[in-house]
């Protein structure tokens, strides 16, 4: 049995930087990755989807070109070329990461699945990879997750897709049926509609279910305005239908017959892949239970990224690694800013109206439709809204929702203010640049009113 100073399992968003930092401090480190380095984000998550989105945005803009006095002629999407562009970019990024990891002194990379037997004393945890067992007193888990597959009768009789297989398609689906109206369903749904697929989203109890109803409705209008069909229903049965897939639903409506079926109903943790003897305590959702510095229930084992249930994004996973590496920082009190990359995107931080209303605080709201934002009007991107919530008594900023052009960037100003504990008058009195989207943050804070 070989011994390492530290073993890192998972080369997703947190593992590589932890492994590299430990090796730089002189540790002999083993990094185990069962798939391709870079994890979900690099291989079948954020980056390929945002690269593909770029093609969808260009197609959309080209179709709208005459609104801007520009003539492009007939717009056609070459889907194989768009997906090839994605693969070229991603392969290059992955190769860069892989080469960097191989170049680090003191770091060994093993590309197989690891199982773990946790030692309750913390002295000698055992990690098995293939027919080799290694021991270490320090184990860092960056296991991530995978698509959760709902128990829909007949689902196993068809070749359904998750995001992994969808991104491997080389031909455009004629009709993409998507189960789930969350991040993945909405981002892909809009993209494939813009490429020319028919798209039907079966959204359960509604799209963007964690957002306020008016925000979800605005998103609904944007997507259906582009021809995406959204039905608030769940599949009751799935089966083959000729060369397509037939999906029956619980709304009594007509079954949907698509050429492809994407399942995007949330994620499940990869913890099970460590085998039955890891010994780690989990929470009620199956995530590894952690303390403020990522310590698990077993001494000498830390859990970072999606698998600890304290974030579900690349930036939260990567920040986990940075917090871990810079004691005494902790994850406690982290303000999570995030974006849904529809076009226009939805930027979010802090409370929704519903959460603020239920908080027992005296809440003030400032908002504007994007159609009143001069930059948005100038650029012909007037869909959406901007909203900030504040506490009337303490002057704290409570949250922001921005659905509109550049919302993914603009919302970070509010995120930073929230993280820094800046009171809203400071943001209100800041000097913004004109004409930008962000200039409306100070501007709308001048017209706060009680939240109804
Ligand atoms: C389609 C899609 C789009 C997304 N878009 C965005 C976005 O725009 N912005 C954003 O912030 N987030 C986005 N996300 C979420 C983001 O990808 C994840 O939150 C992020 O990748 C989590 O990082 P992680 O390091 O925790 O896990 P992962 O990136 O999943 O990495 C975990 C790694 O551990 C490996 N592993 C697991 N178990 C073992 C084992 N037993 N042995 C060896 N290796 C193992 C896995 O193979 C994987 O490589 C998206 C996700 C999806 C699916
Ligand atoms: N822009 C981003 O940062 C980004 C993009 C994509 C994914 N992600 C990450 O990936 C995670 C997973 O995304 P997702 O879209 O799979 O999950 P999600 O949790 O965002 O949405 C899943 C939706 O599917 C619905 N649903 C569940 N079962 C259903 C059923 N049987 N029929 C119909 N609807 C059903 C749920 O009610 C929910 O609204 C996200 O939570 C996010 O953390 C992030």
From TrEMBL:
Pfam families: Pyr_redox_2 (PF07992), Pyr_redox_dim (PF02852). InterPro entries: FAD/NAD-bd_sf, FAD/NAD-binding_dom, FAD/NAD-linked_Rdtase_dimer_sf, Pyr_nuc-diS_OxRdtase, Pyr_nucl-diS_OxRdtase_dimer. GO terms for molecular function: flavin adenine dinucleotide binding; NAD(P)H dehydrogenase (quinone) activity. It comes from the Bacteria. Its cofactor is FAD. FAD binds at residues 50, 306. The active site is at 434 (proton acceptor). Residues 4-319 form the FAD/NAD(P)-binding domain. NAD(+) binds at residues 180-187, 266. Residues 338-440 form the Pyridine nucleotide-disulphide oxidoreductase dimerisation domain. Keywords: FAD, Flavoprotein, NAD, Nucleotide-binding. SUPFAM superfamilies: FAD/NAD(P)-binding domain, FAD/NAD-linked reductases, dimerisation (C-terminal) domain. Disulfide bonds join 41-46. Binds 1 FAD per subunit. Belongs to the class-I pyridine nucleotide-disulfide oxidoreductase family. This is Oxidoreductase. It comes from Microlunatus phosphovorus (strain ATCC 700054 / DSM 10555 / JCM 9379 / NBRC 101784 / NCIMB 13414 / VKM Ac-1990 / NM-1).
